[in-house]
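Why does residue order matter? Because the sequence determines the fold. Keep that principle in mind as you read this record.
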Amino acid sequence: MPDVQKRRKARAKAAAKPATGRKQPAGARAKGPELPAGPAPKPVEGARGKYVYCIIQSGEPQRFGPLGIGADPAEVHTINFRDIAAVVSDTPIEVHDPTRENVLAHERVNETVMRKYTVIPMSFGTVFKTRDDIIELLRSAYEAFHDVLVKMQDKLEFGLKVLWDREVMIREIERADEDIRRLKSEIGAQKGSTYFARMQYGRLVDASLQALSEKYVAEIFEALRDVAVASRANKPIGDKMIINAAFLVARDKETAFDQRVKQIGARFDKLTFKYTGPWPPYNFVNIRLKLERAKEGK
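Structure:
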């Protein structure tokens, strides 16, 4: 039976700096300017700042309810500049630890907002000292934000990881490759040293695994090409993972993408497919913001 798992999983990831990985040819990534750098916020007893979750396109003030970060969920609202807005909540000026509760709150806000709006997600823990500081960010990076929002309009990100059982694959290779099968039999039959035979066997198996992995990767990306706007292949984690990818999908293609992943999972029934989403387009936004964050004093 194919193993295809879809799940939502909270994560806090810098939207302004995408993960490293090969870029698959299928769409442009938005680019923008760099802004002045500033240190991380320092605790200021009793001081209140603004926690920023994401940027949206909206010419009118919006309210999203008590969803924000904090022991008592803070009221989430917008700070507007022209036709864009930062989605924020009031917060103490302090370093927010990436605890499970805080990360879930950050994601909860973004997931709620993205049901209605295209979002540019901000990295976890982005805090500004004042409302004016946020308006200055929106003003100074307006063209970049606006450009990204237009490019990402009605698009969602899905994460896809594909894993295999290395031993199962080796057995498949041994059944299919006569030279490897013969070499393994010779190693089993030899009474003396088998060092060089085992080295040759290992090299042949590794080469075959690499070729098989590349074949699977190429076929899976090709099968998803017509239901995705763009894709990005990040570095696999561990020796069981052969794909660690993100796909940018038009909102009206979400069902088609879901069905296609299931079809591919049935076709490659010896692989395990794990995919998550929808997410804001973390991997497809490349505004490198060096933020002037809230800090103690001026």
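The longest strand covers residues 48-57.
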